[in-house]
Amino acid sequence: MLPARTRLAVAAGHAVSRLSRALGKGAGASVGGKTILALDKGAIAAMAAGRPIALVSGTNGKTTTTRLLTAALSTVGEVVANAGANLPSGAAITLADAPPGRRAVLEVDESHLPAIAAATEPDLVLLLNLSRDQLDRVGEVRMIAARWRQMAATLSGATVVANADDPLVAWAAMAAPKVVWVAAGQPWVADATSCPSCSEPIRFADGGGWVCSTGDLRRPDIDRTMLGDDTGLRLPGRANRANATMALAAAAVAGVDEEKALAAMADVGEVDGRYRTITVGRTTARLLLAKNPAGWHEVLDLLAVSRDPVVISINSRVPDGRDVSWLWDVAFERLTGRPVFVTGERWRDLGVRLRYAGVDHEHRPSVEAALESLPPGRADVVANYTSFQSLIRHAATAPEGATDAAA
Amino acid sequence: MPPPDSAVGIVALYPSLLGTYADGGNVTVLEQRLAWRGIPAEVVTVEVGEPVPATGDLYVLGGAEDGPQSLATDVLAADGALSRAADRGAVIFAVCAGLQILGTSFSVSGGRQRDGLGLVDIATRRGERRAVGEILVEPTPDLGLPMLSGYENHGGVTARGPGVEPLGRVAYGVGNGDGTEGFVRGRILGTYLHGPGLPRNPALADLVLSWVAGPLEPLDDSDAAALRDERVEAVGRGATSWAKRWLDRRSRVARAV
Ligand SMILES: [Zn+2]
């Protein structure tokens, strides 16, 4: 039974959510969650008590890994998850909607993870990766790693599932009492070239190993290797195999049969619009989200298997990061020679970047306009966070193509 | 200036350490702007453990977090080649943490003050608030530059010693923290402008390049000019009435350029 104060806060939160939805102001979850926390600061802790909770955090792959872990854990019981609403307000409304005792899987923003972990006392904490993202808002990535490390030392009741290939994640997770180390890879190493412990250079080996040049920090011994590309996952690419490997490791800790877990995860074809295909005009387009250099690194690998046209949409609202300097950390040179279209609120920054990359490109007023101007065939759309969200909202009302992301 | 038959030597210093804010884009811009004019260039990327080339024409440093900034300072001091290059009049372009490294001192984690390389008489201490956001700069007139626009993200307040001129006056944003932005001393130029700074301000890139390669023919930078106008308007909406009037005047000038 929840404390009276929390029950009151939840009732008010639900009322505000309904009102917000009735007024047509989005899903209402965020404002509902904010209401709950405004009325009862301890609501998350109260609602988390007595239920198993898995927290998923990292710069990239949070939403997808949460979705995959939810699928895996659903093979043994009902699970509630917070579909992308990764701030404390999202956690609050998700828990408020969940029956007592039900397993929750919560995606958590990197900078809010220590507070959410303290409030929820999770049994599983998945630490995926850390790299530069939204430097204007979130701050420098090493500060987040240091705060994760402080948090990890307090996780007495949890198993931490950590990416051993990311030195920043490994350094943080090493402080935890119980860790399952996963070789999930981190092809983007530019944020971990100097040791988070002593600042001396880290040396990376071809096989995925790494060691600080002073020897004070090295990759931990691996408990689980990366899934191969023969597992039948519908979600494409290396990054999604890494996400699935992390989710599978966590599901195994929770006692789920691995074959059943893998089958459930393989069935996931899109995640909140990521990897969805839409049809606009005579073009079938695959929707991809990339919002920072590490994410783009993986997406450029996905794009490299075809010569299809690419539409890139860049915004710089608060959830995207106001600063678009990061576009210069992306190897857009790899798009040379294929048709490229730029759009979004910061298309001019992107255009200057592409000129110096030697990539011919044209501006279009919207993703839809870009797709409509193409001859019949396939295309890829890559958007950062808010431009992706608005694309999905539009796509929801447009005629939809098959969601065969493996194609 | 190099003899006509030799390539312009650009040295990118420790991009793994000094690349937090994508300032590696500045090197791309310097190299491409020479290439587009048919001027041969050779970029040497130096990482920790490798010697800094003694004969570079143009050395480039970017922004960094505290730990890597300190490490870069230590290895540059131990190597010594950058100080010798400055003594012989090589060009140095330094951004943010890179700017601070060139000075006499700067502050690191915990507010501790440490020595810089001491190539320029500037000193940086920790400011009360981190400066994060768009920045507009009215350049010091004798540099012959149009208005500069960038993005700043730093916690440092930089004081210039006597004889060290600023890059310009801050029209919007924080910069050095005393109403000025960056510094120019001889052929060493420092700035807080990310974005990165050179793609957003091609005239600044050409100023730095001209110190090495002499007068340069113009390029078509209409996309960068349009980008700057857009940034001026974006900033102008949030600016004070004084700054708005200033921006109105400047943006008319900017469009005319
Ligand atoms: Zn170390």
Explain this structure to me?
The complex is a heterodimer of chains A (407) and B (257). Chain A is an alpha/beta fold and 407 residues long. Chain A folds into three domains: 1-41; 42-266, 3-Layer(aba) Sandwich (UDP-N-acetylmuramoyl-L-alanine:D-glutamate ligase), CATH 3.40.1190; 277-403, Mur ligase, C-terminal domain (Protein-Tyrosine Phosphatase, Chain A). Chain A is built from 14 helices and 14 strands. Chain A has helices at 4-22, 29-39, 43-48, 62-73, 88-96, 113-120, 141-152, 167-173, 238-253, 258-266, 293-303, 347-357, 367-372, 385-397; strands at residues 53-57, 79-81, 103-107, 124-127, 159-163, 179-182, 202-204, 210-212, 277-280, 283-289, 310-313, 340-343, 362-363, 377-383. In chain A, strand 7 and strand 8 (210-212) form a beta hairpin. In chain A, helix 2 (29-39) crosses helix 5 (88-96). In chain B, helix 1 (24-36) packs across helix 6 and helix 7 (222-236) packs antiparallel against helix 8. Chain B contains eight helices and twelve strands. In chain B, strand 1, helix 1 (24-36) and strand 2 form a beta-alpha-beta unit. The longest helix of chain B has 16 residues, at 241-256. In chain B, the strands form three sheets. Chain B has a six-stranded mixed β-sheet, sandwiched between helices. In chain B, strands 8-7-9-10 form a four-stranded antiparallel β-sheet. Helix content of chain B is 34%, strand content 28%. Chain B has helices at residues 24-36, 66-79, 81-87, 97-102, 197-200, 202-213, 222-236, 241-256, and strands at residues 8-13, 41-46, 58-61, 91-95, 105-107, 113-115, 122-139, 148-160, 168-172, 180-181, 183-185, 188-191. Chain B is globular and about 50 Å long. The two termini of chain B are 29 Å apart. Chain B has a single domain (4-254), classed as 3-Layer(aba) Sandwich (Rossmann fold). Chain B has 257 residues and is of the alpha/beta class. Classes of the chains: A alpha/beta (407), B alpha/beta (257). Chain A binds chain B through residues 132, 135-136, 140-142, 190-191, 193-194, 196, 199-201, 293, 322-323, 325-329, 348-349, 351-353, 355-357, and chain B through 16-17, 19-25, 28-29, 32, 47-49, 65, 67-68, 70-71, 132-134, 151, 153, 194-196, 199-200, 223-224, 226-227, 230. The structure holds zinc ion (ZN). The site of zinc ion has 8 residues of chain A, from loops.
